[in-house]
Amino acid sequence: MLSAGLVFAAVQASRAHDALPTAAQPNGWKYPFACCSNFDCRAVDAVKERPEGYVVPSGEIVPMTDKRVRHSPDGLFHWCTVAGKDDGKTICLFVPPRSF
């Protein structure tokens, strides 16, 4: 039989975590479970938009048409990587609307 603490920990570990609050999303927002397992995602400033795609901090290029590219609800870049590592492979990249 599992103790209540172990059950609670298991439930907590299986939920996606929240993005921090911003001016556009004062209550924050939840990263989708498909992108994150409680520690894989974070806001980043160092994403560059190039003709070949988005260049993330690890140097990986994520094409703009890639299924990993998602709309950012708060207007900031958010990068989700395997194990949350700065050199990890991109799971999802949340991008703000393009400015013209």
Chain-wise SSE layout:
Elements: H1 4-13, E1 18-19, E2 29-30, E3 41-44, E4 48-50, E5 53-55, E6 61-62, E7 69-71, E8 77-81, E9 90-95
Descriptive keywords:
single chain; 100 residues; 1 helix; globular
Commentary on this structure:
With 100 residues, the protein is mainly beta. It has one domain. 10% of the residues lie in helices and 30% in strands. The protein has 1 helix and 9 strands, in the order αβββββββββ. It has one helix spanning 4-13; strands spanning 18-19, 29-30, 41-44, 48-50, 53-55, 61-62, 69-71, 77-81, 90-95. A 4-stranded mixed β-sheet has the order 3-8-9-7, with no helix packed on it. A 3-stranded antiparallel β-sheet has the order 4-5-6, with no helix packed on it. The longest helix is centred in the N-terminal third of the chain and has 10 residues, at 4-13. The radius of gyration is 15 Å and the shape is globular. The N and C termini lie far apart (59 Å). The relative contact order is 0.20.
Q: What class, by secondary structure content?
A: mainly beta
Strand content: 25-35%
User: Uncertain runs with pLDDT below 50, 5 residues or more?
Assistant: 1-16
Number of strands: 9
Helix coverage percent: 10-25%
Taken in chain order, the helices and strands follow as HEEEEEEEEE
Radius of gyration: 15 Å
Q: Quickly count the domains.
A: 1
How far apart are the first and last residues' alpha carbons, in Å?
59 Å
Mean pLDDT rating? 82
Shape: globular
How many helical stretches? 1
Largest sheet: 4 strands, mixed
Strand ordering within the main sheet: 3-8-9-7
